[in-house]
Write a structure and sequence with these properties.
The structure is a homodimer. Chain A is an alpha+beta fold. Chain A is built from 6 helices and 6 strands; from the N terminus they run ααβααββββαβα. In chain A, the strands form 2 sheets. A 3-stranded antiparallel beta sheet of chain A has the order 1-3-2. In chain A, helix 2 packs across helix 3, helix 2 packs across helix 4 and helix 3 packs across helix 4. Strand 6 of chain A pairs antiparallel with strand 6 of chain B, so a sheet runs across the interface. Chain B binds a DNA duplex through helix 2 and helix 4.
Amino acid sequence: MRINMRAPVQPTLLKTQITRNHLRFTRQRQEIFKVFVGMARHVTAEEIYREVLKKESRIGLSTIYRTLGLFCRFGLAEARQFGDGHTRYDPVYDKHHHDHLICTQCGEITEFENQHIERLQEQVARRHRFVIRRHKLELYGLCADCHDHGSGKRG
Amino acid sequence: MRINMRAPVQPTLLKTQITRNHLRFTRQRQEIFKVFVGMARHVTAEEIYREVLKKESRIGLSTIYRTLGLFCRFGLAEARQFGDGHTRYDPVYDKHHHDHLICTQCGEITEFENQHIERLQEQVARRHRFVIRRHKLELYGLCADCHDHGSGKRG
DNA sequence: TTATTATTGAAAACGATTTCTATTATCGTT
DNA sequence: AACGATAATAGAAATCGTTTTCAATAATAA
C-alpha cells in the first residue's frame, strides 16, 4: 500500500482560513495559492508571479507579495532567506520542520531532517532558558555532483 | 585583488593585511577597524557608521560598506543576516565557529557552540555525499527575560 | 618632489519589497 | 438579483538597505 508522507494542502484550507478571519476569497488569492502549492519548494515571489501571470494576466507583483505574507501569517507558507538576496517561500504541508543542504556551486537545495540534532538544539535552549519558536539550520558547501566532477550543473 | 588569509585579530593585523596585499593604509580604514573591534558583535553598517562619524565627521556610508567588505575578504569579519533586513558584521577573533539564539521580542543575540551538533551535521552531510564549507544554525524564540516577564526589553 | 593609482565622499543606481490611491470585486444584507 | 459598505486590487511611485559610479583626493613608489 502506498502512503503519502506529506498530506497535500487542501484547496479548502485557504478558504477556511480566509473566512475564519473575515477576509475575502478573491480570484487572485485562489490562483496564487493554486500555483504556489503546485510549484517546487523554495520559490521566489518573482517565480510565482511569472507563473500566475499565465492565468491572471493583469495581476500585480505587489499582490503576490501581499498574498504570500498572508499565507505566512496563516501558517500555510514559510519565508526563508539563503543569502542570495531573494526571499524564498515554502508551502507548509505539515508540522515537519526541515533543514537544508545548499550547494554553493550549482545552487541545489536538498532538504533533510534529523531528530537527534533537534533534540540537542532543545537542550542548548534549555541551558540558556530560551524558548525556541522556530529554527534554521543551513549547511553550505558542495553537493555530490559538484564535488565529484568539479564543474557543477550550472556552468 | 589577491588576498592573503588567516591570522588572529591584533591591532597591527589590519596594517599587516593591507600592506601584504599592496593596498593603502588610510585614516578611514584605521578608524573603522578600531571602532569595529571595539563594538559589540552583530552590528550593522549603520551602527558602525554612526560611531565612526564621531571621529571622522566627513566619512561616507559607502566607505563603511566598502571597508566592511574588505574586512570580510581579509577574514577579519563575517557578514550575517538574521532576517530583519540588515546585514550584521562580526569581528573574527579566532577560528571558533559559533551559532546563535535570537530573541524575536527584544532582539538579543546570544552565541553558543555545540560540538555534538557539529558532528551530527557532518554525519548528515556524509550521508548525502555533501562537503560542508560553512554552516548556519539559528534558533529563534524568546530569551529568558522575555519569556519570564512577557514584556521584553525593547517593547 | 612628482607620478601613479587606490581610495574617497556624494550622488545616483540598484533590486526587492512596501505604500499609495483610484478602481474593482467580494460578501452580508436586502 | 441587486445594493452598498469596504476589503482587495493594479500599477505607479516610494522606500529601504546596499552597491556602484565618478570626479576629486590622498597614499605610496619612484
